[in-house]
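Collaborator request, handled under Task 6.
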Amino acid sequence: MRIAGRGRDLITLRSGEVRIASEDALSADIEPDRTISRIESQPPRTGIEGLVGARGGGRLREALNSILPAEKSAGTPLYLLIDDLAGSSLVAGWGWTQWKNLWEDGELRVADGKGWSRPVLEGVCIGFRPGASSLNEDGTPRASYNATPVVELPLPDDPHSWHALPDNQGVAFRRARHIDVWCDDVLRIEAGFQDSATHPAGGRVAVHEYRLSGSVDPTSFELLSIAASPGTLPYSSCPAAILNLSRLVGVPVGELRNAVPEQLARTAGCTHLNDALRALAEVPVLAGLLKNR
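C-alpha cells returned to the collaborator:
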C-alpha cells in the first residue's frame, strides 16, 4: 500500500482573504499486515524514520506520541496525517472490491501471517454488533457493501475547499477529512470525512461518510453539544453509532483522544466515526489561529 497524505490549516479572514497557516505532506509504504516499511514527511521531521516497523492497529498511535511528541503538542497537520494511518489503512483495501475484474469475489481479506483470510469482526463496532445483518454466521462481514457515487473533490464552486488532490488512475482509495472552526457566542464546529475509491467506470464511490456539528465553550473548551449526520455507510446497522454521542458532552475537546475510545468502545461506537471525533482534539489549536483575525 502506498500512502500519499496532505493536510493544511487554512484561515479565512473577515475580508475573505485566505491564508495558509501550516501545511504538511506525508509519504509512506505499508505492508499487507499494515506495518510501515517507509515513511517520510515534507517538510522533513527529524526522527520520523523511527516509525518504520510500527503497525496500524498495533499501537501505532503510542509510537507516534513517543517518537514525535512535539507534533501532538503543536497540533500539526502531520500529526493528524500519521494518526489517521491506523484507520485509513484498515479500510483502504475496500477499494479493491469496486474492481470486480481484479477481485475474485468481493470478499475482504487480511494478512494473518499464514496467508490471507476473512477477518472475524463480530463485536468490534456497533455496525458489527452480535446479530447484526452485516455479519455472516461465522462473524465475518458480508460482501454486500453499500456504496454510493459521490461528487469529485475539490468542489468546483469553491477553489479553496481542498488542497490539490492526486488524480489517481486504477485502484485507489482516499480518506478526505475536514474540521472547520469559527466563533460567535461560542466556538462552532463543523467536521466530516469521506472514505471513497476509484471505480472502473470512472468517478468515485464512497463507503463511509459522516458530518459532525458541535459547539464548545471558548473558555473551558468543554464540549457543549455534538451531533452527527450519517451519509453513505456500508451496512444498515452502522448509523446506530450516532445515538451515543451525548456521552461526550462536558468533556474538554482536548481530551477527546482518550475520552472517545473510553466512552464509545467497540459496540458503543463506530471505528470511523470515532476517528472523526478524536480528531476534534485539535479544535483548541484551530481556535488559537482565530485570535485577532
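The cover message to the collaborator said: "The chain has a mean pLDDT of 92. The two ends are 41 Å apart (CA to CA). Please let us know whether this matches your experimental observations."
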